[in-house]
Design a protein that fits this description.
There is one protein chain. This protein is of the alpha/beta class. The protein has 4 domains: 11-106, 2-Layer Sandwich (GMP Synthetase, Chain A, domain 3); 144-290, Rossmann fold (3-Layer(aba) Sandwich), CATH 3.40.50.300; 295-368, Orthogonal Bundle (Helicase, Ruva Protein, domain 3), CATH 1.10.8.60; 373-463, Chromosomal Replication Initiator Protein Dnaa, Chain: A (Orthogonal Bundle), CATH 1.10.1750. It has 22 helices and 8 strands. Helix 21 (431-447) crosses helix 22. Bound molecules: adenosine-5'-diphosphate (ADP) and magnesium ion.
Length: 464
Protein backbone atom coordinates (compact mmCIF):
# COMPACT_ATOMS: atom_id res chain seq x y z
CA UNK A 1 0.00 0.00 0.00
CA UNK A 2 2.83 2.34 0.66
CA UNK A 3 3.45 2.82 -2.98
CA UNK A 4 0.69 5.33 -2.67
CA UNK A 5 2.33 7.71 -0.25
CA UNK A 6 6.00 8.52 -0.28
CA UNK A 7 6.68 8.24 3.43
CA UNK A 8 9.28 10.80 4.38
CA UNK A 9 11.50 10.34 7.40
CA UNK A 10 11.16 13.39 9.54
CA UNK A 11 11.84 14.59 13.01
CA UNK A 12 8.88 15.38 15.25
CA UNK A 13 9.68 19.10 15.03
CA UNK A 14 9.57 19.11 11.30
CA UNK A 15 6.33 17.21 11.36
CA UNK A 16 4.89 19.63 13.87
CA UNK A 17 5.97 22.54 11.71
CA UNK A 18 4.35 21.02 8.68
CA UNK A 19 1.11 20.43 10.48
CA UNK A 20 1.20 24.01 11.68
CA UNK A 21 1.65 25.17 8.11
CA UNK A 22 -1.42 23.22 7.03
CA UNK A 23 -3.39 24.78 9.87
CA UNK A 24 -2.19 28.28 9.10
CA UNK A 25 -3.16 27.84 5.48
CA UNK A 26 -6.62 26.73 6.54
CA UNK A 27 -6.93 29.54 9.04
CA UNK A 28 -5.75 32.45 6.90
CA UNK A 29 -6.52 31.24 3.39
CA UNK A 30 -4.28 30.53 0.44
CA UNK A 31 -3.53 34.10 -0.59
CA UNK A 32 -2.42 35.25 2.84
CA UNK A 33 -0.58 32.05 3.50
CA UNK A 34 1.30 32.21 0.23
CA UNK A 35 2.26 35.85 0.74
CA UNK A 36 3.33 35.81 4.36
CA UNK A 37 3.57 32.38 5.89
CA UNK A 38 4.77 30.05 3.20
CA UNK A 39 8.15 31.83 2.92
CA UNK A 40 8.86 31.14 6.61
CA UNK A 41 11.11 28.25 7.39
CA UNK A 42 11.92 26.59 10.66
CA UNK A 43 15.60 26.91 11.45
CA UNK A 44 15.87 25.36 14.85
CA UNK A 45 13.72 24.18 17.72
CA UNK A 46 15.09 24.60 21.24
CA UNK A 47 13.69 23.91 24.67
CA UNK A 48 11.85 27.17 24.98
CA UNK A 49 12.07 28.86 21.63
CA UNK A 50 12.01 28.19 17.92
CA UNK A 51 13.95 30.15 15.34
CA UNK A 52 12.12 30.91 12.15
CA UNK A 53 13.71 32.45 9.07
CA UNK A 54 11.96 35.20 7.08
CA UNK A 55 13.28 36.45 3.76
CA UNK A 56 12.99 40.21 4.32
CA UNK A 57 12.92 42.85 7.02
CA UNK A 58 9.51 44.00 5.94
CA UNK A 59 8.01 40.55 6.10
CA UNK A 60 9.58 40.12 9.48
CA UNK A 61 7.73 43.14 10.88
CA UNK A 62 4.49 42.09 9.33
CA UNK A 63 4.66 38.50 10.48
CA UNK A 64 5.65 39.66 13.94
CA UNK A 65 2.62 41.87 14.37
CA UNK A 66 0.13 39.58 12.71
CA UNK A 67 1.00 35.94 12.95
CA UNK A 68 3.57 35.33 15.66
CA UNK A 69 0.98 34.67 18.32
CA UNK A 70 -0.84 32.14 16.19
CA UNK A 71 2.34 30.31 15.35
CA UNK A 72 3.20 30.05 19.04
CA UNK A 73 -0.33 28.88 19.88
CA UNK A 74 -0.23 26.22 17.23
CA UNK A 75 3.18 25.07 18.32
CA UNK A 76 1.93 24.62 21.87
CA UNK A 77 -1.09 22.72 20.64
CA UNK A 78 0.95 20.49 18.39
CA UNK A 79 3.80 19.71 20.73
CA UNK A 80 2.49 20.57 24.18
CA UNK A 81 5.53 22.80 24.61
CA UNK A 82 5.08 26.53 25.15
CA UNK A 83 7.76 28.45 23.28
CA UNK A 84 8.76 31.88 22.07
CA UNK A 85 8.97 32.35 18.34
CA UNK A 86 11.99 34.30 17.19
CA UNK A 87 12.25 35.58 13.66
CA UNK A 88 15.56 35.78 11.88
CA UNK A 89 15.82 37.88 8.74
CA UNK A 90 17.49 36.67 5.61
CA UNK A 91 18.95 33.46 6.89
CA UNK A 92 18.63 30.56 4.53
CA UNK A 93 17.51 27.44 6.30
CA UNK A 94 20.36 25.03 5.86
CA UNK A 95 18.84 21.90 4.37
CA UNK A 96 21.10 19.70 6.46
CA UNK A 97 19.61 21.02 9.65
CA UNK A 98 16.02 20.39 8.89
CA UNK A 99 14.31 19.54 5.66
CA UNK A 100 11.50 21.90 6.31
CA UNK A 101 10.50 23.31 2.97
CA UNK A 102 8.12 20.50 2.27
CA UNK A 103 5.69 21.05 -0.56
CA UNK A 104 2.15 20.85 0.59
CA UNK A 105 1.27 17.32 -0.39
CA UNK A 106 4.48 15.72 0.85
CA UNK A 107 3.68 14.75 4.37
CA UNK A 108 0.95 12.31 5.26
CA UNK A 109 -1.00 14.58 7.49
CA UNK A 110 -3.35 12.80 9.86
CA UNK A 111 -6.70 12.94 8.21
CA UNK A 112 -8.73 14.10 11.18
CA UNK A 113 -6.78 17.33 11.32
CA UNK A 114 -8.34 18.71 8.24
CA UNK A 115 -11.74 17.17 8.59
CA UNK A 116 -12.43 19.10 11.77
CA UNK A 117 -14.94 21.85 11.47
CA UNK A 118 -16.81 20.48 8.51
CA UNK A 119 -20.19 22.04 8.82
CA UNK A 120 -22.04 19.23 7.12
CA UNK A 121 -20.51 16.72 9.47
CA UNK A 122 -19.12 14.58 6.66
CA UNK A 123 -16.16 12.99 8.27
CA UNK A 124 -14.76 12.32 4.83
CA UNK A 125 -15.26 15.74 3.35
CA UNK A 126 -13.23 18.91 3.62
CA UNK A 127 -14.49 22.24 4.92
CA UNK A 128 -15.56 24.86 2.43
CA UNK A 129 -13.95 28.25 2.27
CA UNK A 130 -16.83 30.67 2.87
CA UNK A 131 -15.19 33.24 0.60
CA UNK A 132 -15.44 30.98 -2.42
CA UNK A 133 -18.95 31.68 -3.68
CA UNK A 134 -20.51 32.44 -7.03
CA UNK A 135 -21.02 36.00 -5.87
CA UNK A 136 -17.33 36.55 -5.39
CA UNK A 137 -16.36 34.85 -8.63
CA UNK A 138 -15.66 37.32 -11.42
CA UNK A 139 -16.61 36.03 -14.83
CA UNK A 140 -14.64 36.79 -17.97
CA UNK A 141 -14.01 35.23 -21.34
CA UNK A 142 -11.47 32.81 -19.98
CA UNK A 143 -13.73 31.20 -17.40
CA UNK A 144 -17.26 31.75 -18.64
CA UNK A 145 -17.86 28.21 -19.83
CA UNK A 146 -16.59 26.71 -16.59
CA UNK A 147 -18.63 29.19 -14.62
CA UNK A 148 -21.82 28.52 -16.59
CA UNK A 149 -21.40 24.78 -16.22
CA UNK A 150 -20.72 25.12 -12.51
CA UNK A 151 -23.85 27.21 -12.06
CA UNK A 152 -25.89 24.71 -14.01
CA UNK A 153 -24.79 21.89 -11.76
CA UNK A 154 -25.35 23.95 -8.64
CA UNK A 155 -28.79 25.25 -9.54
CA UNK A 156 -30.26 22.30 -11.33
CA UNK A 157 -30.81 19.09 -9.42
CA UNK A 158 -31.23 17.07 -12.63
CA UNK A 159 -28.01 15.54 -13.73
CA UNK A 160 -27.32 16.84 -17.23
CA UNK A 161 -23.73 15.92 -17.72
CA UNK A 162 -21.74 13.53 -15.67
CA UNK A 163 -19.12 14.21 -14.63
CA UNK A 164 -18.52 17.89 -14.89
CA UNK A 165 -14.78 18.09 -15.38
CA UNK A 166 -13.15 21.47 -14.74
CA UNK A 167 -9.57 21.97 -15.66
CA UNK A 168 -6.99 24.70 -15.90
CA UNK A 169 -3.66 25.92 -14.61
CA UNK A 170 -2.89 26.61 -11.01
CA UNK A 171 -4.58 29.53 -9.29
CA UNK A 172 -7.24 30.11 -11.94
CA UNK A 173 -10.31 29.40 -9.84
CA UNK A 174 -11.02 25.67 -10.00
CA UNK A 175 -11.25 25.24 -6.26
CA UNK A 176 -13.19 28.46 -5.97
CA UNK A 177 -15.81 27.15 -8.41
CA UNK A 178 -15.96 23.76 -6.71
CA UNK A 179 -16.60 25.35 -3.33
CA UNK A 180 -19.16 27.66 -4.88
CA UNK A 181 -21.05 24.70 -6.30
CA UNK A 182 -21.01 22.85 -2.99
CA UNK A 183 -22.07 25.91 -0.99
CA UNK A 184 -24.85 26.74 -3.43
CA UNK A 185 -26.29 23.24 -3.36
CA UNK A 186 -26.15 23.06 0.40
CA UNK A 187 -27.90 26.41 0.63
CA UNK A 188 -30.60 25.55 -1.89
CA UNK A 189 -31.28 22.00 -0.87
CA UNK A 190 -29.90 21.27 2.57
CA UNK A 191 -31.15 17.72 2.27
CA UNK A 192 -28.79 16.82 -0.56
CA UNK A 193 -25.53 15.38 0.63
CA UNK A 194 -22.59 17.08 -1.00
CA UNK A 195 -19.20 15.60 -0.42
CA UNK A 196 -16.27 17.79 -1.43
CA UNK A 197 -12.66 16.80 -0.96
CA UNK A 198 -9.31 16.90 -2.67
CA UNK A 199 -8.00 13.82 -4.43
CA UNK A 200 -5.14 13.98 -1.97
CA UNK A 201 -7.52 13.68 0.90
CA UNK A 202 -9.41 10.93 -0.85
CA UNK A 203 -6.16 9.00 -0.89
CA UNK A 204 -5.37 9.57 2.77
CA UNK A 205 -8.88 8.55 3.75
CA UNK A 206 -8.56 5.45 1.70
CA UNK A 207 -5.21 4.50 3.17
CA UNK A 208 -6.49 5.16 6.62
CA UNK A 209 -9.52 2.99 5.99
CA UNK A 210 -7.26 0.18 4.96
CA UNK A 211 -4.98 0.66 7.91
CA UNK A 212 -7.88 0.58 10.31
CA UNK A 213 -9.68 -2.12 8.37
CA UNK A 214 -12.58 0.14 7.86
CA UNK A 215 -13.03 0.04 4.11
CA UNK A 216 -16.72 -0.77 4.30
CA UNK A 217 -17.49 2.50 6.04
CA UNK A 218 -15.24 4.28 3.59
CA UNK A 219 -17.02 2.89 0.56
CA UNK A 220 -20.39 3.48 2.13
CA UNK A 221 -19.65 7.16 2.75
CA UNK A 222 -18.72 7.84 -0.81
CA UNK A 223 -21.45 5.83 -2.35
CA UNK A 224 -24.27 7.41 -0.42
CA UNK A 225 -23.74 10.99 -1.50
CA UNK A 226 -25.86 13.02 -3.86
CA UNK A 227 -23.01 15.07 -5.20
CA UNK A 228 -19.42 13.93 -5.15
CA UNK A 229 -16.75 16.52 -5.81
CA UNK A 230 -13.09 15.69 -6.06
CA UNK A 231 -10.55 18.45 -6.51
CA UNK A 232 -7.14 18.12 -8.17
CA UNK A 233 -7.54 14.61 -9.50
CA UNK A 234 -4.01 14.72 -10.95
CA UNK A 235 -2.81 14.05 -7.44
CA UNK A 236 -3.60 10.35 -7.74
CA UNK A 237 -1.40 9.94 -10.80
CA UNK A 238 0.80 6.86 -10.45
CA UNK A 239 -1.00 5.84 -7.29
CA UNK A 240 -2.43 2.59 -8.50
CA UNK A 241 -4.39 1.36 -5.54
CA UNK A 242 -5.98 4.74 -5.02
CA UNK A 243 -6.89 4.98 -8.69
CA UNK A 244 -8.54 1.60 -8.54
CA UNK A 245 -10.67 2.69 -5.61
CA UNK A 246 -11.38 6.03 -7.24
CA UNK A 247 -12.58 4.31 -10.38
CA UNK A 248 -15.04 2.13 -8.50
CA UNK A 249 -16.26 4.98 -6.38
CA UNK A 250 -16.74 7.16 -9.42
CA UNK A 251 -18.66 4.46 -11.28
CA UNK A 252 -20.85 3.66 -8.33
CA UNK A 253 -21.89 7.28 -7.95
CA UNK A 254 -22.42 7.87 -11.67
CA UNK A 255 -24.38 4.64 -12.02
CA UNK A 256 -26.79 5.88 -9.40
CA UNK A 257 -27.23 8.99 -11.52
CA UNK A 258 -25.75 11.18 -8.87
CA UNK A 259 -23.70 14.20 -9.88
CA UNK A 260 -19.94 14.01 -9.94
CA UNK A 261 -17.69 17.07 -10.31
CA UNK A 262 -13.97 16.65 -10.79
CA UNK A 263 -11.17 19.13 -11.28
CA UNK A 264 -7.73 18.63 -12.68
CA UNK A 265 -4.78 20.60 -13.93
CA UNK A 266 -5.25 19.45 -17.51
CA UNK A 267 -7.81 17.83 -19.76
CA UNK A 268 -8.75 14.21 -19.06
CA UNK A 269 -6.91 12.90 -22.09
CA UNK A 270 -3.77 14.82 -21.16
CA UNK A 271 -3.58 13.55 -17.58
CA UNK A 272 -0.39 11.63 -17.12
CA UNK A 273 -0.06 8.60 -14.93
CA UNK A 274 -3.80 8.07 -14.79
CA UNK A 275 -5.27 4.83 -16.11
CA UNK A 276 -6.86 5.02 -19.54
CA UNK A 277 -10.21 3.76 -18.37
CA UNK A 278 -10.37 6.58 -15.84
CA UNK A 279 -9.31 9.21 -18.36
CA UNK A 280 -11.95 8.04 -20.75
CA UNK A 281 -14.63 8.12 -18.07
CA UNK A 282 -13.64 11.58 -16.95
CA UNK A 283 -14.27 12.84 -20.45
CA UNK A 284 -17.78 11.45 -20.71
CA UNK A 285 -19.67 14.43 -19.39
CA UNK A 286 -18.89 18.06 -19.88
CA UNK A 287 -15.27 19.08 -19.96
CA UNK A 288 -14.78 22.80 -19.32
CA UNK A 289 -11.43 24.48 -19.24
CA UNK A 290 -10.43 27.67 -17.52
CA UNK A 291 -7.95 29.66 -19.57
CA UNK A 292 -5.37 32.06 -18.24
CA UNK A 293 -6.85 35.42 -17.35
CA UNK A 294 -6.84 38.37 -19.67
CA UNK A 295 -6.27 41.97 -18.71
CA UNK A 296 -9.97 42.85 -18.36
CA UNK A 297 -10.65 39.91 -16.07
CA UNK A 298 -7.67 40.78 -13.92
CA UNK A 299 -8.96 44.34 -13.61
CA UNK A 300 -12.41 43.04 -12.72
CA UNK A 301 -11.00 40.74 -10.08
CA UNK A 302 -8.91 43.52 -8.56
CA UNK A 303 -11.90 45.83 -8.35
CA UNK A 304 -14.01 43.13 -6.83
CA UNK A 305 -11.37 42.37 -4.19
CA UNK A 306 -10.92 46.05 -3.41
CA UNK A 307 -14.65 46.39 -2.88
CA UNK A 308 -14.67 43.37 -0.61
CA UNK A 309 -11.96 44.67 1.66
CA UNK A 310 -13.57 48.08 1.67
CA UNK A 311 -10.78 50.12 0.15
CA UNK A 312 -11.99 50.94 -3.35
CA UNK A 313 -9.87 54.09 -3.48
CA UNK A 314 -6.62 52.55 -4.65
CA UNK A 315 -5.10 54.75 -7.39
CA UNK A 316 -6.21 53.72 -10.84
CA UNK A 317 -2.65 53.56 -12.11
CA UNK A 318 -1.75 51.07 -9.40
CA UNK A 319 -4.70 48.83 -10.17
CA UNK A 320 -3.87 48.90 -13.86
CA UNK A 321 -0.23 48.27 -13.14
CA UNK A 322 -1.10 45.18 -11.14
CA UNK A 323 -3.48 43.92 -13.81
CA UNK A 324 -0.83 44.39 -16.44
CA UNK A 325 2.09 42.98 -14.53
CA UNK A 326 0.80 40.11 -12.43
CA UNK A 327 -0.34 37.81 -15.16
CA UNK A 328 0.58 34.40 -13.81
CA UNK A 329 -2.62 33.58 -11.99
CA UNK A 330 -5.34 34.94 -9.77
CA UNK A 331 -3.83 33.66 -6.57
CA UNK A 332 -0.67 35.61 -7.20
CA UNK A 333 -2.68 38.65 -8.20
CA UNK A 334 -4.55 38.53 -4.90
CA UNK A 335 -1.31 37.99 -3.04
CA UNK A 336 0.19 41.04 -4.73
CA UNK A 337 -2.78 43.17 -3.82
CA UNK A 338 -2.61 41.97 -0.22
CA UNK A 339 1.03 42.74 0.01
CA UNK A 340 0.65 46.25 -1.30
CA UNK A 341 -2.27 47.16 0.96
CA UNK A 342 -0.56 45.57 3.94
CA UNK A 343 2.60 47.49 3.28
CA UNK A 344 0.79 50.79 2.92
CA UNK A 345 -1.00 50.07 6.16
CA UNK A 346 2.21 49.21 7.94
CA UNK A 347 4.16 52.26 6.91
CA UNK A 348 1.10 54.50 7.20
CA UNK A 349 1.34 55.94 3.70
CA UNK A 350 -1.18 55.82 0.88
CA UNK A 351 -0.56 53.29 -1.85
CA UNK A 352 1.48 54.68 -4.73
CA UNK A 353 2.90 53.30 -7.91
CA UNK A 354 6.48 53.57 -6.67
CA UNK A 355 5.63 51.76 -3.48
CA UNK A 356 3.89 49.04 -5.46
CA UNK A 357 6.84 48.55 -7.75
CA UNK A 358 9.18 48.31 -4.82
CA UNK A 359 7.12 45.96 -2.70
CA UNK A 360 6.42 43.65 -5.63
CA UNK A 361 9.84 43.61 -7.24
CA UNK A 362 10.24 39.86 -7.00
CA UNK A 363 6.75 39.08 -8.28
CA UNK A 364 7.04 41.47 -11.18
CA UNK A 365 10.30 39.97 -12.25
CA UNK A 366 8.93 36.44 -12.17
CA UNK A 367 5.84 37.58 -14.08
CA UNK A 368 7.81 39.18 -16.87
CA UNK A 369 6.69 36.92 -19.61
CA UNK A 370 9.31 36.09 -22.17
CA UNK A 371 7.55 36.19 -25.48
CA UNK A 372 9.55 34.58 -28.25
CA UNK A 373 9.77 35.84 -31.78
CA UNK A 374 8.48 32.58 -33.18
CA UNK A 375 5.47 32.82 -30.90
CA UNK A 376 4.81 36.30 -32.24
CA UNK A 377 5.13 35.08 -35.80
CA UNK A 378 2.76 32.21 -35.19
CA UNK A 379 0.12 34.42 -33.61
CA UNK A 380 0.38 37.10 -36.22
CA UNK A 381 0.14 34.60 -39.08
CA UNK A 382 -2.91 33.04 -37.52
CA UNK A 383 -4.50 36.38 -36.75
CA UNK A 384 -4.17 37.72 -40.28
CA UNK A 385 -4.81 34.35 -41.79
CA UNK A 386 -1.57 34.08 -43.73
CA UNK A 387 0.81 31.17 -43.84
CA UNK A 388 3.73 31.24 -41.47
CA UNK A 389 6.04 30.31 -44.33
CA UNK A 390 4.83 33.35 -46.28
CA UNK A 391 5.50 35.59 -43.33
CA UNK A 392 9.12 34.46 -43.37
CA UNK A 393 9.45 34.40 -47.16
CA UNK A 394 10.57 37.15 -49.53
CA UNK A 395 7.06 37.70 -50.88
CA UNK A 396 6.15 41.34 -51.09
CA UNK A 397 2.43 41.10 -51.73
CA UNK A 398 0.65 43.55 -49.49
CA UNK A 399 -1.44 40.79 -47.90
CA UNK A 400 1.73 39.30 -46.53
CA UNK A 401 3.93 42.34 -46.20
CA UNK A 402 1.71 44.18 -43.73
CA UNK A 403 1.33 41.27 -41.30
CA UNK A 404 5.08 40.75 -41.54
CA UNK A 405 5.65 44.35 -40.54
CA UNK A 406 3.26 43.96 -37.66
CA UNK A 407 5.13 40.88 -36.51
CA UNK A 408 8.44 42.72 -36.69
CA UNK A 409 6.98 45.63 -34.80
CA UNK A 410 5.67 43.35 -32.06
CA UNK A 411 8.98 41.54 -31.89
CA UNK A 412 10.66 44.89 -31.22
CA UNK A 413 8.06 45.90 -28.65
CA UNK A 414 7.70 42.67 -26.75
CA UNK A 415 11.13 41.10 -26.77
CA UNK A 416 14.57 42.41 -25.93
CA UNK A 417 16.00 41.29 -29.28
CA UNK A 418 18.03 43.71 -31.35
CA UNK A 419 17.01 44.77 -34.84
CA UNK A 420 19.60 42.52 -36.56
CA UNK A 421 18.47 39.56 -34.47
CA UNK A 422 14.88 40.19 -35.43
CA UNK A 423 15.88 40.52 -39.07
CA UNK A 424 17.59 37.16 -38.97
CA UNK A 425 14.47 35.53 -37.58
CA UNK A 426 12.47 36.87 -40.50
CA UNK A 427 14.20 34.94 -43.21
CA UNK A 428 17.53 36.74 -42.84
CA UNK A 429 16.38 40.29 -43.51
CA UNK A 430 18.51 43.34 -42.95
CA UNK A 431 18.13 45.36 -39.76
CA UNK A 432 17.14 48.42 -41.76
CA UNK A 433 14.12 46.51 -43.05
CA UNK A 434 13.06 45.84 -39.50
CA UNK A 435 13.60 49.46 -38.55
CA UNK A 436 11.52 50.56 -41.48
CA UNK A 437 8.73 48.16 -40.50
CA UNK A 438 8.70 49.43 -36.94
CA UNK A 439 8.48 53.06 -38.07
CA UNK A 440 5.83 52.31 -40.63
CA UNK A 441 3.60 50.54 -38.13
CA UNK A 442 4.10 53.31 -35.61
CA UNK A 443 2.85 55.79 -38.18
CA UNK A 444 -0.04 53.64 -39.28
CA UNK A 445 -1.23 53.07 -35.73
CA UNK A 446 -1.81 56.79 -35.46
CA UNK A 447 -4.13 56.95 -38.44
CA UNK A 448 -5.56 53.48 -38.88
CA UNK A 449 -7.68 52.62 -35.89
CA UNK A 450 -8.55 49.13 -37.03
CA UNK A 451 -4.89 48.24 -37.39
CA UNK A 452 -4.28 49.81 -34.03
CA UNK A 453 -6.94 47.54 -32.55
CA UNK A 454 -5.47 44.48 -34.27
CA UNK A 455 -2.12 45.18 -32.73
CA UNK A 456 -3.61 45.76 -29.33
CA UNK A 457 -5.45 42.41 -29.57
CA UNK A 458 -2.28 40.64 -30.56
CA UNK A 459 -0.27 42.25 -27.82
CA UNK A 460 -2.78 41.13 -25.24
CA UNK A 461 -2.91 37.56 -26.42
CA UNK A 462 0.84 37.40 -26.53
CA UNK A 463 1.31 38.90 -23.11
CA UNK A 464 -1.15 36.56 -21.48
P1 LIG B 1 -7.10 26.69 -8.45
O1 LIG B 1 -7.92 25.76 -7.61
O2 LIG B 1 -7.51 26.69 -9.89
O3 LIG B 1 -5.63 26.49 -8.29
P2 LIG B 1 -8.28 28.68 -6.75
O4 LIG B 1 -9.70 28.36 -6.96
O5 LIG B 1 -7.67 28.24 -5.47
O6 LIG B 1 -7.38 28.17 -7.97
O7 LIG B 1 -8.09 30.25 -6.94
C1 LIG B 1 -6.96 30.96 -6.43
C2 LIG B 1 -7.43 32.25 -5.82
O8 LIG B 1 -7.88 33.10 -6.85
C3 LIG B 1 -8.58 32.09 -4.88
O9 LIG B 1 -8.42 32.96 -3.80
C4 LIG B 1 -9.80 32.47 -5.68
O10 LIG B 1 -10.81 33.03 -4.90
C5 LIG B 1 -9.23 33.49 -6.63
N1 LIG B 1 -9.92 33.48 -7.92
C6 LIG B 1 -9.64 32.70 -8.99
N2 LIG B 1 -10.44 32.99 -10.02
C7 LIG B 1 -11.24 34.00 -9.60
C8 LIG B 1 -12.30 34.74 -10.21
N3 LIG B 1 -12.68 34.52 -11.48
N4 LIG B 1 -12.91 35.69 -9.48
C9 LIG B 1 -12.52 35.94 -8.21
N5 LIG B 1 -11.54 35.28 -7.57
C10 LIG B 1 -10.90 34.31 -8.26
MG1 LIG C 1 -7.29 24.25 -6.37
Amino acid sequence: MHDAVGMAVMTPWVEAWQRIRVKLRGEFGDATFDSWLKPLSLLRAEADRILVAVPTRFMCDWVKTHYLGRIADHWRQETGVPIEVELVVNVQAAPSQVAVEAPRPAAPVPADDEADGDEAGDSYGAPLDPRFTFDSFVVGKSNELAHAAARRVACNPQVQFNPLFLYGGVGLGKTHLMHAIAAEIRARTPGRRVLYLSAEKFMYQFIRAIRFQDTMAFKEQFRSVDVLMIDDVQFIAHKDATQEEFFHTFNAVVDQRRQVVISGDRSPSDLEGIEDRIKSRLGWGLVADIHPTDYELRLGILHSKLDQVGCPDMPKEVVEFLARKIVSNVRELEGALNRVTAYADLVGRPVSLEMTQEVLQDLIRSNDRRVSISEIQRHVAEYFNVRLSDLLSARRARAVARPRQVAMYLAKQLTSRSLPEIGRKFGGRDHTTVMHAVRRIEELREVDSSLDQDIENLRRTLEN
